[in-house]
UniProtKB/TrEMBL annotation:
<protein>
    <submittedName>
        <fullName>LytTR family DNA-binding domain-containing protein</fullName>
    </submittedName>
</protein>
<feature type="modified residue" description="4-aspartylphosphate">
    <location>
        <position position="59"/>
    </location>
</feature>
<keyword id="KW-0238">DNA-binding</keyword>
<dbReference type="Pfam" id="PF04397">
    <property type="entry name" value="LytTR"/>
</dbReference>
<dbReference type="GO" id="GO:0003677">
    <property type="term" value="F:DNA binding"/>
</dbReference>
<dbReference type="InterPro" id="IPR001789">
    <property type="entry name" value="Sig_transdc_resp-reg_receiver"/>
</dbReference>
<feature type="domain" description="Response regulatory">
    <location>
        <begin position="5"/>
        <end position="127"/>
    </location>
</feature>
<keyword id="KW-0597">Phosphoprotein</keyword>
<dbReference type="InterPro" id="IPR007492">
    <property type="entry name" value="LytTR_DNA-bd_dom"/>
</dbReference>
<dbReference type="InterPro" id="IPR011006">
    <property type="entry name" value="CheY-like_superfamily"/>
</dbReference>
<dbReference type="Pfam" id="PF00072">
    <property type="entry name" value="Response_reg"/>
</dbReference>
<dbReference type="InterPro" id="IPR046947">
    <property type="entry name" value="LytR-like"/>
</dbReference>
<feature type="domain" description="HTH LytTR-type">
    <location>
        <begin position="138"/>
        <end position="236"/>
    </location>
</feature>
């Protein structure tokens, strides 16, 4: 997962944008797609449209557009029913809710004003949980069948119009799926090196200026646009394993 969808729910617009800036400064090769809701009414509307975030920063006490008090904990209960894998980070100036938040599953309880080290710890844990979840096997539809795929077995994925080819060591699985859709099912060991290719960094033998050589002997291209972020992601990947 190289693109992480983040929803910030806070009726203080300035605080919401401060969180957005902290996300921009977080040291990672991941891309955060951030949306902001400043009321529970706006949150409900997003959910009705099928929006499914990976991580939610939820204020505990909000005022909805009608001016009545809203409860972020209740909102999270509804959110978890629709998006059971979402990682919830509570953010509040109301410390009296520090025990009540345990009525729901959550990653962290942050108090305002936010401390950068606490914010980083919370986001680290949320991403770690996401990576563990998406490292599990997933299914892809192939004709009338559903095939089980383990991310660790994938060498690379290439897109061809409305289809993807998932290259394993001993076979190629072709399915009607988008590259973005597959990317959301994969852990952070994968990086998009080209508009049409995702590669498993566990399988890389050598990275050149315009191509990647895999341990299997296969080669895949690196686009000029993605050359630098791909190299940085691979260097980070290698550093984590020292």
């Amino acid at each position: 997962m190289n693109t992480v969808s983040v929803l910030v729910v806070d009726d203080d617009r300035e605080q919401a944008h401060a969180l957005e800036r902290m996300l921009e400064q977080y040291p990672t090769h991941k891309t955060f797609e951030v949306e902001i809701c400043t009321s529970l009414t706006a949150l409900d509307e997003r959910l009705r449209r099928g929006f499914s975030p990976d991580i939610v920063f939820m204020d505990v006490v909000l005022e909805d557009s009608a001016g009545s008090a809203g409860n972020g904990i209740t909102a999270v209960q509804k959110l978890l029913q629709q998006c059971p894998g979402v990682q919830v980070i509570y953010v509040t100036g109301h410390v009296e809710y520090c025990t009540r938040v345990y009525r729901t599953s959550h990653v962290y309880f942050l108090t305002k004003p936010l401390q950068p080290e606490d914010f980083t710890d919370a986001l680290d844990k949320a991403i770690e949980n996401l990576e563990e979840r998406i490292a599990r096997p997933f299914g892809v539809k192939v004709g009338g069948r559903i095939m089980r795929v383990l991310p660790a077995d994938i060498e690379f994925v290439e897109s061809d119009r409305r289809k993807v080819r998932i290259h394993l060591a001993d076979q190629v699985i072709e399915a009607y799926e988008s590259l973005g859709g597959i990317s959301r099912k994969l852990p952070g060991t994968f990086v998009q090196c080209h508009k049409s290719f995702l590669v498993n960094m566990e399988k890389i033998a050598e990275m050149r200026s315009d191509q990647i050589d895999l341990l299997s002997g296969a080669t895949i291209p690196i686009s000029q646009k993605r050359s630098r972020p791909t190299r940085e992601a691979f260097m980070d990947f290698l550093k984590e394993r020292l």
